[in-house]
Design a protein that fits this description.
The complex is a heterotrimer of chains A (94), B (486) and C (474). With 94 residues, chain A is α+β, with helices and mostly antiparallel strands. Chain A has three helices and three strands. A two-stranded antiparallel sheet of chain A has the order 2-3. Classes of the chains: A alpha+beta (94), B alpha/beta (486), C alpha+beta (474). Chains in contact: A-B, A-C, B-C.
Chain lengths: 94, 486, 474
């Protein structure tokens, strides 16, 4: 079964801009991969529990204790743009 | 080829260090000499700091009372595990200039034993690949044949160990990224049980599949390193409170009492005949050692690759969404507004394989497709896990080829992602089931390329895996063969 | 056509923990930008979350107090979207298996009681804050990872007043539980309102608008009122309501469409693989239930029964937990509950309000209030004197006894002293004495007044009365 993906919508959702060449190449590759994945449909999983978590671990918590935070200078100096202890980005419009 | 301390194993060097027959500085100098000689051909590393390494070696030598089992010995790090103050980029442009402000738990543990983290090895970008060709920093070459890939994604680590550029190295394994390159480079590569080694500080690819493990020259080194790396970590909610055995003490217990399973689903038509020959030989070795070899079934094996590529890419699409140019790493130079900054940064910062997987993963989670892809794959994962639970009722460990073929030519599979994905067919199931697996050298092709034998074990039963691998190693000398690098 | 408003509220409440939901950074309000962050809440590559156990307990407490069913199994999910204040580009939240399901809050509007059903309560982490500068935007991640519960109501509210009462009740419960500070100015309680209209009698829901940026309970009421009118007008003109997110502008009292949220969202929820499920036994949930503090409704009933307070007094005193606590602390020093209630609700609250203080900042301690009442009850000061003493206590923070002693204000209750004055007044006022003896009984009050005057008001009026009558009838 051939499966097609609306690659433009998906790329937009993932914040990726594709060149015309990438778009064409990926579209056909995605189609191959998705068609391959269809083989899973051969298995009836109606009554199978989804493996949301790998091991049967539960209730892992830590006590409500304050630990020292980082010195803002230590990470802001590596930021693409920082000023007055803020990370700076282009204007956000609400 | 020069005689070098670098041809000794970690446990041998550890003995010499303890007896004060060598110094950390001597080991470090041997390593730097090797790098000068071979690194230009192999390109196993992305970066290292020679000055810092020498300085650290001197500091170790100055301490009179050293207790750690890795005192003064350099361990190579994969460029995906965070070391405070050392640029860590996952071989991606998008993380260029990223300097972690903290250490991964495994880094703390290795340093706690006196080890020196030396150099970050090359890898597929964000560990997405099976050949180390998707790295932003260029390909790594297989020391056994420089026209071939070392496998991946931990190809830099495997090539460094095989090529005498590292005594031992860290790797990470999401679908075979430790075991497959170890097999293709003739090393030992161990992927522990999910939850055995803390993931804190491992830059996530697929959170429910990723594990850190060692790539070494022999099984004893793997046991030595696992003893240090394993154990519960309160910073990783998925790490388990399971006792860590002293693996080295288990190695020599012998395997006479054991039953080994051969899953018929792994001996398929796509298997390279030369690999088949080597594996058959390996089975004979075990039979001669008095082990009972039985056939077993893993019927859902054929669905593993499809299941894996849905789950791994979906989780990756979320894990890699944070690379947007706001806080760290790369930000595109030109953009018209905030949203455009995201698009430009991510489009210029990620390579094609990463983009491909992000798109696939985003799709698998998107509205209207979640049930058909992600949920379906999560259910398949349960079935694959149950496959192993059933199989392990009949045997103590399972033997399979690690990879369907030996090292392939650089560029050979780059234009066909599906074929590339299928080269992980034998390793992926262990990640889906969460069980441990090890690859050990078990022979060579006519061209002199290494073949790897994979041993899969029960959850948290790395001791049995290592014991099984060690018995084979003692009975053979494949692991002693070294490549001639010119 | 007549329309009926249908309103549902989503309330985000900051849980009262010292550290964040998944890391050890402080939750204190008011720090410098990015001073309370670490690799975990900044979402740096390689970090992993570990759940704060107190946040979990507080969420369960809130659920139980609101009659929710605490889930025996719940899990965290990732909600994926790109925004600069979301450092991982996903928010850890709960999607299809939240910690609490159902529940209700009782409200009373204009004398009518009504039950507002809850859909769910879930745990999640807060996002950071954007500061809009001229030309660009600064991002501060101090709030990132602060533990929140989101309390989602069913669309059971029918008027802005009901919405207001619902929030008031909710806040009272949360304060009683000590689960949150509920401080809207500091962002520890935030509310979004879903508002739609439908023709009266219609069962189907109309198209709703989601209103954000509601920074006080009064603004919630005002914004909903505005939104109802806006939608009514559109419908009356035959236009359609657009499903959208609208921002409330509190300064100019109107809502406007939010541009950045125009595109339909696809949050791509999936189970958070870095966290493990939360599993409770029925016994564990029960042990939290029995440890819950007494809530307002129960306390009000107890106040009425044990202290014979009126329903109104008990309601006012228990509406705020700290007020009710203050009342009960007063009772340790004086048994006169009615007097305590009167002083608190009258003079004390009036003075606090004038100074814009809360009960927690009262310059008068419960012990002092009770001391004042004791002096009155022992007849040492009169009611009129007490009013003056109260004001001085409030101003200086001194006890009633200190003030009374210092000024020599204490009431004259020594009968021999009063007797002397009484005799003197009788001697000096023969006409009034004559009037009294002739049957004009109200002449007595004039004579009492004269005694009080002669003692500068310090004489115990009851004693004065008795002694005068005794002397006059001799």
């Amino acid at each position: 079964m051939k499966v097609e993906m609306n690659i433009d919508d998906v790329a937009k959702l993932a914040r990726l801009k594709l060149s015309a060449e990438e778009r064409e190449k990926f579209s056909s590759q995605m189609s191959d991969i998705l068609s391959y994945v269809q083989k899973l449909n051969a298995v009836d999983t109606t009554h199978v529990q989804a493996a949301d978590h790998v091991e049967a671990v539960q209730n892992v918590t830590r006590p409500d204790e304050v630990k020292p935070s980082l010195d803002p200078d230590s990470f802001l100096k590596h930021a693409p743009l920082g000023r007055d202890q803020f990370f700076i980005v282009p204007q956000v419009i609400e | 080829m020069s005689e070098s301390l670098m041809d000794l194993t970690l446990h041998e060097l550890s003995e010499l260090m303890r007896a004060r027959k060598i110094s950390s500085l001597e080991v470090m100098q041997a390593k730097l000499a090797r790098l000068k000689e071979r690194e230009p051909q192999i390109h196993a590393y992305i970066r290292w700091d020679e000055k810092a390494a020498i300085e650290e070696a001197r500091q170790r030598d100055n301490v009179q009372d050293h207790q750690g089992s890795l005192w003064g010995l350099p361990i190579a790090n994969k460029d995906i595990i965070c070391v405070e103050g050392v640029e860590t980029s996952c071989a991606s442009k998008i993380l260029s200039g990223y300097i972690p402000p903290y250490n991964a738990t495994v880094v703390e543990r290795l340093r706690g034993e006196g080890a020196i983290l030396f150099g970050n090895t090359n890898m597929d970008e964000f560990a997405m690949g099976s050949s180390t060709e998707t790295s932003h920093f260029g390909v790594t070459r297989n020391p056994w044949d420089l026209t071939r890939t070392p496998g991946g994604s931990s190809g830099g680590s495997a090539a460094a160990v095989a090529g005498g550029l590292a005594i031992a190295a860290l790797g990470t394994d999401t679908g075979g990224s430790i075991r497959q390159p170890a097999a293709l480079c003739g090393c030992v590569g161990l992927k522990p049980t999910y939850g055995r080694v803390s993931r804190y500080g491992l830059i996530a690819f697929a959170s429910s599949l990723d594990q850190i493990g060692p790539i070494t020259q022999d099984v004893e080194d793997a046991a030595l390193l696992l003893e240090i790396l394993a154990g519960h970590d309160s910073k990783d909610s998925t790490s388990l409170k399971v006792e860590v055995p002293r693996y080295r003490e288990h190695l020599k217990k012998g395997i006479r009492d054991m039953k080994l399973g051969l899953p018929k689903e792994y001996f398929i038509s796509g298997l390279d005949p030369q690999v088949k020959v080597a594996i058959d030989e390996a089975i004979k070795v075990y039979t001669n050692l008095g082990v009972e070899v039985v056939e077993c079934q893993l019927p859902y094996t054929e669905y593993a690759v499809a299941t894996y590529y849905v789950l791994a890419t979906a989780q990756a699409s979320s894990n890699l969404a944070r690379y947007d140019g706001v806080q760290y790493g790369y930000r595109a130079p030109n953009f018209s507004n905030l949203v455009d900054m995201y698009f430009e940064t991510r489009s210029l910062g990620f390579g094609p394989e990463v983009k491909r997987r992000i798109i696939l993963g985003t799709y698998a989670l998107s509205s209207g497709y979640y049930d058909a892809y992600y949920l379906k794959a999560q259910k398949m994962r349960t079935l694959i896990r149950q496959d192993f639970e059933e199989a392990f009722k009949k045997c103590d460990a399972i033997l399979t080829p690690t990879s369907p073929s030996c090292a392939f030519k650089i560029g050979e599979r780059m234009n066909d992602p599906l074929t590339m994905y299928l080269s992980d067919i034998f390793t992926i199931s262990a990640n889906l089931a969460g069980i441990p697996g090890i690859s050990i050298p078990c022979g060579f092709s006519k061209e002199g390329l290494p073949v790897g034998l994979q041993i899969l074990g029960k959850h948290f039963d790395e001791a049995t895996l290592l014991r099984t691998a060690y018995a084979f190693e003692q009975a053979t000398d494949h692991h002693k063969r070294k490549p001639v690098v010119r | 056509m007549d329309y009926e408003p249908v309103i549902g509220l989503e309330v985000h409440v900051q849980l009262k923990t010292a550290s964040k939901l998944f890391c050890g950074c402080s939750t204190k309000f008011g720090a410098l930008p990015n001073a309370q962050v670490c690799p975990v809440c900044l979402g740096y590559p390689g970090v992993l979350p570990v759940l704060n156990e107190k946040a979990l307990t507080l969420a369960v407490m809130a659920g139980l107090a609101m009659g929710s069913t605490v889930a025996l199994y719940s899990k965290f999910d990732r909600k994926n979207y790109f925004y600069p204040d979301l450092p991982k580009a996903y928010q850890v939240s709960q999607y299809d298996e939240p910690i609490c399901l159902g529940g209700k809050i009782d409200i009373e509007v204009e004398g009518t009681r009504k039950e507002i059903r809850l859909t769910r309560i879930h745990l999640e982490e807060d996002a950071g804050k954007s500061m809009h500068f001229k030309g660009d935007t600064g991002v501060d991640y101090n709030r990132t990872g602060i533990p929140l519960i989101e309390i989602v109501s069913e669309p059971d509210l029918r008027s802005p007043q009901e919405a207001y009462q619902y929030l008031k009740e909710l806040k009272t419960i949360l304060e009683y539980l000590d689960v949150s500070d509920c401080n809207m100015e500091e962002g520890s309680l935030r509310c979004d309102a879903n508002v739609s209209l439908r023709p009266v009698g219609e069962k189907k829901m109309g198209t709703r608008a989601e209103i954000k940026n509601l920074n006080s309970f009064h603004n919630v009421e005002k914004a909903i009122t505005y939104e109802i009118e806006r939608q009514k007008e559109l419908l009356s003109r035959g236009e359609r309501i657009v499903q959208e997110t609208r921002l409330w502008n509190a300064d100019e009292s109107f809502t406007r469409s939010m541009r950045s949220k125009e595109a339909a969202h696809d949050y791509r929820y999936f189970p958070e693989p870095d966290l493990v499920p939360i599993v409770f036994s029925a016994k564990e949930i029960e042990s939290v239930r029995v440890s819950l503090p007494e809530l307002a409704q129960r306390r009000k009933e107890r106040f009425m029964k044990d202290f014979a307070l009126t329903a109104y007094d008990a309601e006012v005193l228990t509406a705020q937990k700290d007020l009710a606590d203050f009342f009960e602390r007063c009772l340790k020093y004086s048994k006169n509950a009615k007097a305590i209630s009167n002083w608190m609700m009258g003079d004390l609250m009036r003075e606090l309000k004038l100074k814009d203080l809360g009960i927690a900042q009262s310059p008068m301690s419960p012990e002092h209030i009770a001391g004042l009442i004791e002096l009155m009850d022992q007849g040492k000061i009169s009611g009129k004197m007490a009013k003056d003493v109260f004001l001085e206590m409030f101003g200086t923070g001194k006890s009633a006894q200190e003030i009374v002693s210092a000024k020599g204000l204490s009431q004259l209750s020594d009968s021999s002293q009063i007797e002397g004055v009484v005799k003197k007044v009788i001697q000096e006022n023969p006409p009034s004495v004559q009037d009294y003896r002739n049957g004009k009984k109200n002449a007595l009050s004039y004579l009492v007044g004269q005694v009080m005057k002669a003692t500068q008001g310090r004489a115990n009026p009851k004693m004065v009365n008795e002694l005068l009558v005794k002397e006059l009838e001799k």
